[in-house]
Amino acid sequence: MLNFLFVFIGGGLGSMCRYGIARGMAHYKLNFPLATFTANVLACIILGYLISLKSGDQVSGNTQLLIMTGFCGGFSTFSTFTAETHLLFQEGAYGQGLFYVGASLVVCLLSLYLGTRLGLR
């Protein structure tokens, strides 16, 4: 039961941080979902970093639940990414929508790799 508490706390903190980024970037009237993109990239860096530490047994099971499953799960958001992409397509911004999908995949993969490299140092 304690495991659920770690995931719950981490998820709440991650969601609050994502909300904070969205509020902080709201005044940048962009036609690109930068807040979600930023949260997803940062979550990938954090997750990659902890994955590399985990492989060296430097991260406890509770820390994995709190940060990797909870925080990164609450901080990153595939559903919002999908909804924002759908909205771009509905508005006829096909180029931006495709760019968002491609950039998210490429940059998030590179961010995860960066995080793993940082964790190996």
From TrEMBL:
<dbReference type="GO" id="GO:0062054">
    <property type="term" value="F:fluoride channel activity"/>
</dbReference>
<dbReference type="GO" id="GO:0046872">
    <property type="term" value="F:metal ion binding"/>
</dbReference>
<keyword id="KW-1133">Transmembrane helix</keyword>
<feature type="transmembrane region" description="Helical">
    <location>
        <begin position="93"/>
        <end position="115"/>
    </location>
</feature>
<dbReference type="Pfam" id="PF02537">
    <property type="entry name" value="CRCB"/>
</dbReference>
<dbReference type="GO" id="GO:0005886">
    <property type="term" value="C:plasma membrane"/>
</dbReference>
<feature type="transmembrane region" description="Helical">
    <location>
        <begin position="32"/>
        <end position="51"/>
    </location>
</feature>
<keyword id="KW-0915">Sodium</keyword>
<keyword id="KW-0472">Membrane</keyword>
<feature type="binding site">
    <location>
        <position position="73"/>
    </location>
    <ligand>
        <name>Na(+)</name>
    </ligand>
</feature>
<keyword id="KW-0407">Ion channel</keyword>
<comment type="function">
    <text>Fluoride-specific ion channel. Important for reducing fluoride concentration in the cell, thus reducing its toxicity.</text>
</comment>
<keyword id="KW-0813">Transport</keyword>
<dbReference type="GO" id="GO:0140114">
    <property type="term" value="P:cellular detoxification of fluoride"/>
</dbReference>
<keyword id="KW-1003">Cell membrane</keyword>
<comment type="similarity">
    <text>Belongs to the fluoride channel Fluc/FEX (TC 1.A.43) family.</text>
</comment>
<feature type="transmembrane region" description="Helical">
    <location>
        <begin position="63"/>
        <end position="81"/>
    </location>
</feature>
<keyword id="KW-0406">Ion transport</keyword>
<feature type="binding site">
    <location>
        <position position="76"/>
    </location>
    <ligand>
        <name>Na(+)</name>
    </ligand>
</feature>
<dbReference type="InterPro" id="IPR003691">
    <property type="entry name" value="FluC"/>
</dbReference>
<keyword id="KW-0812">Transmembrane</keyword>
<protein>
    <recommendedName>
        <fullName>Fluoride-specific ion channel FluC</fullName>
    </recommendedName>
</protein>
<keyword id="KW-0997">Cell inner membrane</keyword>
<keyword id="KW-0479">Metal-binding</keyword>
